[in-house]
Amino acid sequence: MNQEVIRDFLNVPGIVGIALLSGQSQPVFYSHNPAFVQGPPELLTQGILQVVETIPSEYETLEFRFSKNQIVLHRFAKNFIVLIIKDDSRIDETFVDALQRLRAWTEQNPTITIEQFQALATAPLPKLKDLIEAFNQLSEFTKNYFGVAVITNYLKSSRPETEWMEQFQVNRSGQIALIGELSGLEQTVSAQEHELFRHWVAQYIRRCSQAVRDYAVLVEQSALTDTQKALLLP
Q: How confident is the model over 144-154, as pLDDT tens digits?
């Protein structure tokens, strides 16, 4: 399971988080919800392991409630169990497709699965200034293909409509700026906020790709440093 597979799965509507269990090892959590990625997981972990130990081997799935969320355990091959945290939203075929992809990669790459999952779950979260600087670098690169007015329009129209995103202003030069105190630039974003920012970038790239063929490939090859790509791209 590479990190893109995990992030794609978490982008499915209704999915709050995911955890990987291998044998009797401690679950490795990754979630959009700060309560799962930042809070103490000991009680949840202990409870989950107790439930897992009681699951008969012939059971491939098991569902139960935890707080306000639904917990679903899926037993994969190679002694893996994937725990999925979801809300009460309706799960459609998008979930089924993403789960099949998750299962296929996990069962084909057991060692890489554990390494990549742990790397993603323990990766430090970026500061707001690093995200803005990387996105502005992408905007600057896009001036090779569009005028400033078009870039400004694309940045505004692709920005997710959430309260947290309202703090970002797109100025006339096609650059993103933070509204408010500059000290806010030093703040570390949450996992959920990071994914929101990545979603903004993804929508922006999709808009640009409608007018410039292979724009996404050009971004991968030329627009950003490896560090910036890790911040903004899956």
A: 999 999 999 99
